[in-house]
Amino acid sequence: MSKSNILIARAVFPEVIAKLAQHFDVDSNQTDQVWTPAQLIAKLQGKQGVFTTGSERIDGALLAACPALKVCANMAVGYNNFDLEAMTAAGVLATNAPDVLTETTADFGFALLMATARRMAEAEHFLRAGQWSKWSYDMFAGSDIHGSTLGILGMGRIGQGIARRGALGFGMKVIYHNRSRLDAATEAECQARYVSKEELLGSADHLVLVLPYSASSHHAIGAAELAQMKPSATLINIARGGIVDDAALALALRNKTIAAAGLDVFEGEPKVHPDLLGVPNVVLTPHIASATLPTRLAMANLAADNLIGFLTQGKPLTPLNPEVLPKP
Ligand code: 8YV
Q: Is the full-model pTM beyond 0.90?
């Protein structure tokens, strides 16, 4: 049987390429060029599978132009770069990379919360700029984490990891809002109480966003929601750009509607709203919440194993639209 052809759309660990090359004819992109949609379509001609990251958009137009394509394996748990409906309609399998990044991403969410609440980035810039000439009683005074109220919007696996860290490690009171309420055992394990979105916004000292991006979560946090938060509150977004209205947030930070924000994701990234770059009370990181080498390797291996499992045996590990699989 001839080997399937696959494309790896971005640079990745050489050992993952080597593993894929045992099963497929592999076209890789180790120069890590970010292709335009037209370039991606050209590269995908004659390919049965593609290894994608969150940067490659797979939509109806691309699928129509790539009739050989059978599977897209995302090296990410989020898959808002996939038009899942169009993929299912075209009979193309989609897979993501859940679970392997949960604890690493929760660690980072907590790190960003702490850096934001305790003003670490602002203080470091001040020191590096040679502005530290004396101690003073309120210099970079931030807000406490221990004993405060941690709000979580989106209580999936990563949200639960952040809840556990807050409740068990820092004695925080944890409240959450989610599309559906967790079962009692999971709520007890996370020591988390389900509340309305209004109560979450109004009561949280620190609000962490961990919900998936979709049309219904677009600008879930805008000017109206920011106005409902405490003036002392911090807002953390490790989910997706577009969930927060970045222009409204920059204004709220400037006007001290809320105290501070920590952002790992941005609307239209890697571009960042210029108003956010101009406010001091925001910690900005370039979408690195899952970035430890062991976790990134596990994510890449899971994406690769989805391609191998599906294209060699019809058995993907983490399918998003299993309805396209042939019935047993
Ligand atoms: C990825 C992420 O680094 O998994 C996700 O959903 O946002 C990140 O872990 C990014 O999407 C690249 O694929």
A: yes
Do both 150 and 93 map to the same domain?
no
Cβ–Cβ contacts within 10 Å for residue 144, how many?
A: 12
Amino acid at 305: D
Q: What per-residue confidence (pLDDT) applies to 320?
A: 98
Amino acid symbol at 258: I
- Strands annotated E in the chain: 4-8, 24-27, 49-52, 71-74, 93-95, 149-153, 173-177, 192-194, 206-209, 234-237, 260-263, 282-284
Range of the domain at 27: 5-100+293-324
177, 269, 273, 296: which one is catalytic?
269
- 171-223, pLDDT tens digit by residue? 999 999 999 999 999 999 999 999 999 999 999 999 999 999 999 999 999 99
Residues 135 and 268 in one domain: yes
Active-site annotation holds for 240: yes
